[in-house]
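Appendix B, record 7
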Amino acid sequence: MISTTAKSETQLQNCARILVKCPDRPGIVAVLSSFLHKHDANIIESSQYSSDPENGTFFIRIEYHCEQLVRKRDEMEREFASIAAEHQMEYSFHYRAIRQRAAIYVSKETHCLMELLWEWQNGDLEMDIAVVISNAEAARPIVESLGIPFYYIPANKDIREQVEQQQIRLMEEYKVDILILARYMQILTPNFVSHFENRIINIHHSFLPAFIGADPYTRAFNRGVKLIGATSHYVTNDLDEGPIIEQDVERVDHRADVQTLKKIGRKIERRVLANAVKWHLENRIIVEENKTIVFH
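C-alpha cells (predicted):
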C-alpha cells in the first residue's frame, strides 16, 4: 500500500505550471492546450486575461498534471521553445516538486515574520525558509527555535554598501529564490535590487504618500483618517512604488486611538504580506511594466 505522503509527493512531481505573456491573437489557448494534450497532460486550472482583444497583450496561467513529468519535462521545454518563438511568447515553467527557497528580512517588529512562520508551519506556503536576516536581535529566539539560520547584521546608511555585499553573499550561499521584507526598515540600494528583480516582496502601511516618514499612525490619527490599510509590492529602485501585488483596508472611526490604529494596521499587514507571498510562490503573478496581473 502506498502511503498518503508518498502519494502526495508523487502527485507534486507530476504537477507543473506555465505562465505565458504574448501578443493577443486568435488561437493562443488552442496552441497551449494542444501542446499539453500532445504530452498527455491534464489541465487542472487555467486563468487568462487580455489587456485588449484588438492588438492587446494576452496573459495566461495554466496548472497541469502529467504522468512521468520528471522524465518528460526537458523534452517538453525544448519543444515549447519553438512554439514560443512562433507566437512571440514570454514564458516560464514552474514545477511544484521544486520548492522555492526564501530569505526573510526583519527588523524589530516581528508580527509579519510570525505570520509567515505560522503559514509555513501549516504547509500553506510552498517554500523552504533558508535564512532570516535582521538588523535587530528581537526575532532570534523565535527563528532559532525552529532550526532556521539567523543572522544579525547591523545596518544603517553609513555602512549600507558593506552590509548589502554581505547579504548578497548569504543569498548566494543559501541559494535563495525569493526575498521577503517582513517589516525590514532599511532602504535597499539599486545594486542590491538589481540582483533580485521581481523577487523581493515588501509590505508597508497604505498611508503613503500622505504620511511619509516616521510615526505615520500618529499623523494619520491627528488627521482623523477613516481607512487604514497595507500594501505589498515588488521592490524596485523607486522607493515603495514597485508593482503592487495585494492591498487591503479596514474602516476606523474617531474612537480608535493611535495604539488601536497600529494594532489594526499590523493585522492588515500580516494578511496582505502572507497573501502576496503565497501568490508569488504559486506562480499566480505576471509583472507587466509597473503593475501586476494576479490570477487568484
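Remarks on this record: Residues 258-281 form the longest helix (24 residues). The first strand starts at residue 15 and ends at 23.
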